[in-house]
């Protein structure tokens, strides 16, 4: 959280809402470990990272939805053995769960 906190504080001081996505679990290979965070301001500014490839844009979209409706989301990203990693755009072959919530403090 320390890596994204300065940006969160800046956005909040400007009156913006902020959503935070957190990697809560992983299985197999993944670029970021549990606890990794991505903060998203209501203007779409970003701080931190929860993954890479096609995962990050999907998490950002979910964060914008959470900012809009206030409902947290649990996301799962991974591939099956039938999937082609290069085709999908994932950096590795693991599975991650990302919890996205709006900060209301």
Automatic annotation (TrEMBL):
Transmembrane segments: none annotated. Residues 11-78 form the XdhC- CoxI domain. Pfam families: XdhC_CoxI. PANTHER family: ALDEHYDE OXIDOREDUCTASE MOLYBDENUM COFACTOR ASSEMBLY PROTEIN, MOLYBDENUM COFACTOR INSERTION CHAPERONE PAOD. This is XdhC family protein. It comes from Ktedonosporobacter rubrisoli.
